[in-house]
Amino acid sequence: EAGVAQSPRYKIIEKRQSVAFWCNPISGHATLYWYQQILGQGPKLLIQFQNNGVVDDSQLPKDRFSAERLKGVDSTLKIQPAKLEDSAVYLCASSGLGDRGGYEQYFGPGTRLTVT
Amino acid sequence: KQEVTQIPAALSVPEGENLVLNCSFTDSAIYNLQWFRQDPGKGLTSLLLIQSSQREQTSGRLNASLDKSSGRSTLYIAASQPGDSATYLCAVRGDDKIIFGKGTRLHILP
């Protein structure tokens, strides 16, 4: 079974530029999550999709961040314009009902963003 | 508001020892708790998922316990190995909100 795929793995941009990240979840997983992980911190949930609907985006800075999940599969997360404090690793995860119970999350390798 | 704390922030132990990592949370109304490991520069790898109705889960040398009433979970690692060196994170799910702790950075000394 293929895991969660993310691209790019690394991105360096200047402040005020825009950037987009892509995520492909595990096949059949209805729920997709985007997290921001700042160095030394635990991941912070930015947005959660159930199929192509938003379940929770309460911690998404909506003035500069946007996310979509067209057709309930792939998802993109965009930042426009980027600020220095957006430097972090952006993690995508997916979940579905599994053998060990519901909602076990599986993570992709992440995208490391550096804003200069 | 749910808060998740992991103490200590860092831990070094000699190879072969058994060890316990701690995770505490303030709101006991949770659906489940999940333990992950994270290697430097990598994503998170799921270790164990405990549903709110369960008291513990085991996988190989790992055992995770959950005590909702006291707001605590522990991850027990038996016979530690250098390959266990990583950051261990716990995540609590409640009311569709998922909150992570900051993690415990574990170093196993050969």
- Largest Cβ-defined interface: A-B, 25 and 25 residues
The counted number of beta strands of chain A is: 11
Classify the beta-strand content of chain B into a percent band: over 45%
- Count the helices of chain B. How many? 0
Distance between the termini of chain B: 41 Å
Largest sheet properties of chain B: 6 strands, mixed
Helicity of chain A, in percent? Answer: under 10%
Contiguous runs where pLDDT drops below 50 for at least 5 residues of chain A = none
Helical stretch count of chain A?
Answer: 0
What is the string of helix and strand elements of chain A?
Answer: EEEEEEEEEEE
Global outline of chain B: globular
Alpha-beta classification of chain B: mainly beta
Strand content of chain A: over 45%
Indicate the radius of gyration of chain A in whole angstroms.
Answer: 14 Å
Largest sheet of chain A: 7 strands, mixed
What is the N-to-C order of secondary-structure elements of chain B (H for helix, E for strand)? Answer: EEEEEEEEEEE
Question: Separation of termini of chain A?
Answer: 37 Å
Describe the protein:
With 116 residues, chain A is an all-beta fold. Chain A contains no helices and eleven strands. The relative contact order of chain A is 0.32. The model of chain A has no long low-confidence stretch (mean pLDDT 91). Helices cover 0% and strands 58% of the residues of chain B. Chain B contains no helices and eleven strands. Chain B is globular, with a radius of gyration of 13 Å. Chains A and B meet through strand 5 and strand 10 of A and strand 4, strand 5, strand 9 and strand 10 of B.
